[in-house]
RNA polymerase sigma-70 factor, ECF subfamily (Niabella drilacis), 177 residues
Amino acid sequence: MLLIDSWYTEFRAKLQAIACHLGYTVQEAEDIVHQFFLDLLQKDIPGVIQNPEAWLVTAFKRRLIDLHRSQQRKGHYREIESFHLPSAQEIIEKLETDTALINHIAAAYKKLPARFRRVIYMKYYQGHSTEKIVALTGLTHQTVYNNLSKGIQHLRQHLKKDTVLERLVNFMLCLLP
């Protein structure tokens, strides 16, 4: 039961978004998601689920298909478009073309202290492992880890102040067809 509660908390909004995308109203989507999780509480769930998000999305889509078929039989026809979640590659390609977002992130990156910029550049732009960064810079593992961690933390703070994260989320939502 605790497992399903945590899934409900974590994935409820995503499942509602899927239902809304397929033409259901917000209230209908909320009702369908609630019923979906209530039904899960009554069923035996497989012991080990490696990827609960994928499992839930697949099960939920099947539920929506079953619901559509039953409504179709009753004469309540609702057109369901083919649903496409963008792949990681599609998301990356669209993000790479958003020049305003890239410029904003670059400006936040330039505000970082040099020690943070250096290790972030080596790790994420040059693709070096932590061990390789240690070998190239002479810093300790802990220093490299701390600089990466604090650098990313500073980037998040700068981006939150400028509401870039909000723009990024809105951009990601626009990717859904």
Notes: Residues 17 and 161 are 27 Å apart (CA to CA). DSSP finds nine helices and no strands in the chain. The longest helix spans residues 52-73. The mean pLDDT is 80.
